[in-house]
Amino acid sequence: MNTFQFQTLPKNVEELKAYPLSTPHASAALLILAFCRYVENKEDGLAMLDYLNGPANLSNMDKQFLRDRFIDKPYLPFSYFRGATPDNNYTPSQPYTIDVYDWVYTMEQGYTKVFLQSGGADSQRPVILRQKGNEHFVWEYAGIVSGIRIPKKDDPWA
């Protein structure tokens, strides 16, 4: 497991670029930061996600996919921070901490799969990254934006 801590969340792509993409684990952690920004400011979030995608910009279909996933779940990206659970409405502990887990199997050369744990899911969620030079870019993240348990404040049965 690799752990990443952030005192603050980046507000734009320039602030995100201050963090290296030198490992797949780091890039996966930065993906969560970009998703957090997306739910607060769509344009800044999309710019950050474009950067994390490397030479492959987000397509209109990618943008629609993200809109559909986050439109009624602004809490979803925050669930990946340590301490964020449905019971505390996905309020993360400070500093913002993300744990990224290794996958024990190998993939095609140039690709790496890592896992993140949401406080609202029973199992870890995968992210696939693709290496270009010494950097690792986001290749596949659909599992990260899958549904999770709703926050306690939104649960009529809680």
* Main beta sheet: 5 strands, antiparallel
As an assembly, this protein is: single chain
Distance between the termini: 32 Å
Helix content: 25-40%
The total tally of domains equals: 1
Beta percentage is: 15-25%
Large-scale geometry? globular
Strand line-up across the major sheet: 1-2-3-4-5
Order of helices and strands: EHHHHEEEE
Query: What's the number of helices?
Result: 4
Task: Look at the helices and sheets and give the structural class.
Answer: alpha+beta
* Number of beta-strand segments: 5
Poorly predicted runs are none
Radius of gyration: 15 Å
Global mean pLDDT: 96
Structure description:
- There is one protein chain.
- Helix 2 packs antiparallel against helix 3.
- The chain has helices at residues 13-16, 24-40, 42-52, 60-70; strands spanning 2-6, 96-102, 111-116, 125-132, 135-140.
- It is 27% helix and 20% strand.
- The mean pLDDT is 96.
- It has one domain (2-151).
- A 5-stranded antiparallel sheet has the order 1-2-3-4-5, with helices on one face.
